[in-house]
Write a structure and sequence with these properties.
alpha/beta; ODC_N (chains A, B); globular; Rossmann fold; 24% strand; 36% helix; Ectoine utilization protein EutC (chains A, B); NAD(P)-bd_dom_sf (chains A, B); homodimer; ODC_Mu_crystall (chains A, B); 330 residues; seven-stranded mixed β-sheet
Chain lengths: 330, 330
């Protein structure tokens, strides 16, 4: 049955979609919907490509109240940088939730994932960080290190950013980008313990497989968002930190038990066995978040299909408003 | 990273891809690869849309030796016919198996699934039907009833087709289409027992949830391909028939145990508990197929991601040869 399909390229999407409060709000609404229990979010389909150091993940979610649902395909080919290509690519496909017809092809090469992942960090900061954040710290020096700070600054307008990374040159470049973009002070910090000590909000954005943030560094009035772990075996936060924090929050418990910091804490035998709160439950007011500014809170973001459906719907709307993209019939 | 993506619409694909021996051969090669044990084929991602009588399935497979891998998204919105739309839609996305970049978008609305499903029926007939088939019977009157006969005729050039369906008008229309397309005798048969009795090859193509082909109807020199069951609860073949046949063959044992005729036989407690042969193992010569023309054989096709990767690769190649499609950069 021939019907119109909107095709949006990466440059078109980058012009139409900003990492702004509207994007943060739409991702927040997806988390709130997750808490309603009415979202359908199947387990991630994951396929390893043998001999290629590569993996492909497919995520989706149906959210009541959204006109469409997205299917996101994220190939990660980790030897690509050797031939001058980025590791992460992929696209999102937006389907009508009423007819199943393809409505839009978002050829974003991972851009929308970057946006929705950073937006989730801002949602976590909005609901869990102390009310006043003067210094934010970020661990890791990649795209998400930058975007997490850009997003979080919109909900906690901190005055200073500290950047830690294994590579001092990359940390300096990241700090420089953040300072330029936000117009605030940002510098590399070589000592991760000092970075945490001086920050009220810390975001970890690395693919670490051994903790880079120690439990002993936790201090009153700290919120940590760990967004690097999205696969079994990854681990950024000392398992003991999860037990010691006043509040640990998962984006999706069933995923964090397998892929997140929670998996590492369970594996280390230090988790208390209770079912943690989900970020959406705190957004929706169904569970209690931070109750005073001196608490220590940790949020574990593994990435959800609900965010993909939210950002794809948002991107299509923004593109239509801007008159962007090409329509094809098929 | 901007790169070229070939976009093919349904009309372009229909012009470029025929259900011919080349298509059958490429699907056969995918089955042979499955038998090698080196194919990576994750379980199907399946999502129900609540309140919409709808389901979305995502299939994929990596096949060594194929340059790309397909991800297929198949939405089934079963109330669509009420508003004049087909129930089944969807698309395939072809990715480079070397870089993970999107190489082609095949906006086929299910056409390529139709082709690869019918081609699998021909592979089953080629390897399992008696060497001479004079009459073929088909149960069901939809698109696959027609395509299964078109495909099977290329490997067993039968002289006559019998069509059974619950709706006599539809059965007559289906028989008329088959006669016109193949240039042979085809007629509706109201008695399914007689259809089976007079056929050497029977293909069942229905969404039945209770058997439409009875074990008592099996006769020497019969091959049955059941391709209608692709979901839990569907069942076309009397469970006793699987136990009684000389040979039962699955397209993929792990799927047929859940979704296929095998699931019904196991559920009914009549399966012998042995691991059945897979079609690919017979194609590859790793297991024995039909050994004489008087045997009774049954093949259970639930549909595999390997077929999708094969047909998507084939379609891209055919389109490139024909100069079809549009290239976009993203």
């Amino acid at each position: 049955m021939p019907h119109d399909i909107l095709v949006l390229t990466e440059p078109e999407l980058k012009r139409a979609v900003a990492l702004d409060l509207d994007a943060i709000d739409v991702v927040e609404s997806a988390f709130a919907a997750l808490a309603s229990g009415k979202v359908v979010m199947p387990p991630i389909l994951s396929m390893e490509i043998p001999g290629a150091n590569a993996e492909v993940d497919v995520k989706t979610a149906y959210i009541p109240g959204f006109d469409g649902f997205a299917i996101k395909v994220s190939p990660g080919f980790f030897d690509n940088p050797r031939i001058g290509l980025p590791s992460l690519n992929g696209l999102m496909i937006l389907f009508s939730a009423k007819t199943g017809l393809v409505e839009a092809l978002l050829l974003d090469n991972g851009f929308l994932t970057d946006v929705r992942t950073a937006a989730a960090g801002a949602v976590a900061a909005r609901h869990l960080a102390p009310s006043v954040v003067t210094t934010a710290g970020v661990m890791g020096t990649g795209v998400q290190a930058r975007l997490q700070m850009f997003a979080a600054h919109q909900v906690r307008p901190f005055e200073r950013v500290l950047v830690w990374g294994r590579d001092a040159t990359k940390a300096a470049a990241c700090a420089s980008d953040i300072a330029g973009h936000l117009g605030i002070d940002a510098r590399a910090e070589t000592d991760p313990a000092r970075l945490v000590a001086e920050s009220q909000l810390v975001v970890t954005t690395t693919p670490a497989r051994a903790p880079i943030l120690k439990a002993d560094w936790l201090h009153p009035g700290l919120h940590v968002t760990a967004m690097g772990s999205d696969q079994e075996g990854k681990n950024e936060i000392d398992p003991a930190a999860l037990a010691r924090a006043d509040l640990y929050v998962a984006d999706r418990v069933s995923q964090c038990e397998k892929l997140g910091e929670l998996a590492a804490a369970i594996g280390a035998g230090v988790w208390n066995g209770k079912t943690p709160a989900e970020l959406g439950e705190i957004v929706a007011g169904a569970k209690t978040g931070r109750t005073d500014d001196s608490q220590v809170t940790i949020c574990d973001l593994t990435g959800t299909g609900a965010q993909d459906t939210a950002i794809a719907t948002f991107a299509r709307q923004q593109a239509l408003t801007a008159g962007a993209g090409t329509t094809i019939q098929s």
